[in-house]
Amino acid sequence: DAKTTQPNSMESNEEEPVHLPCNHSTISGTDYIHWYRQLPSQGPEYVIHGLTSNVNNRMASLAIAEDRKSSTLILHRATLRDAAVYYCILGGGSNYKLTFGKGTLLTVNP
Amino acid sequence: SQTIHQWPATLVQPVGSPLSLECTVEGTSNPNLYWYRQAAGRGLQLLFYSVGIGQISSEVPQNLSASRPQDRQFILSSKKLLLSDSGFYLCAWRRTSNQPQHFGDGTRLSIL
Questions:
Q1: CB B105 to CB A99 under 8 A?
Q2: Could you tell me what percent of chain A has a pLDDT over 90?
Q3: Taking CB atoms and an 8 Å cutoff, what residues of chain B touch A41?
Q4: d(CA A51, nearest CA chain B) in Å
Q5: N or C: which end of chain B has fewer CB within 10 A?
Q6: Among A5-19, A89-103, B73-87, B89-103, which is the least confidently predicted range?
Q7: How confident is the model over A24-51, as a mean pLDDT?
Q8: How far is A93 from chain B (nearest CA, A)?
Q9: Angstrom distance (rounded) from CA A110 to CA B73
Q10: Residue A2 has pLDDT above 70, yes or no
């Protein structure tokens, strides 16, 4: 399975933008880039996913590098409720699995 | 809309007892189904996944088994629980391999 690399932790201030990076240098042509987040004592929550083009939804934006070897999850205005572990995962095509790594623990300061 | 149900929310079991956790999905057909476990302070570990009735793939050899007796039902079982089986068990579904996974609320299992 192609792997991803994320910082262990990041900090942000409330109402400021947050850019969460993810490296995936061994990504294959059929791998989608998925982002999930997990709040304490809850199951992971889908955030966004994309293949090649940048994606926007009500929760966040996903910026994908032209060579697809890295991506960035953008939270436009962080709130205290955005404090969570964020997972960047590759999957799709013939690969039925999503392999969760350790993710990035995002702390949002008031 | 689709929903996923997982129960019970919490469970306390003695070592050596059997286990059965059930997960059902509503509002979709032929979903891919998944069982994960998360130990305290750790990441999610994929245990089993299923792409159809009776089709189970095991990711980690262990004391657990899974079954899919119906299209939208996924069951996690054990004949004799070990202390190391404690954790947060999560069921998830998705339509196809290119679609996002949607998780249930999880079962917190404590083994005494």
A1: no
A2: 76
A3: 88, 108
A4: 9
A5: N
A6: A89-103
A7: 91
A8: 6
A9: 43
A10: no
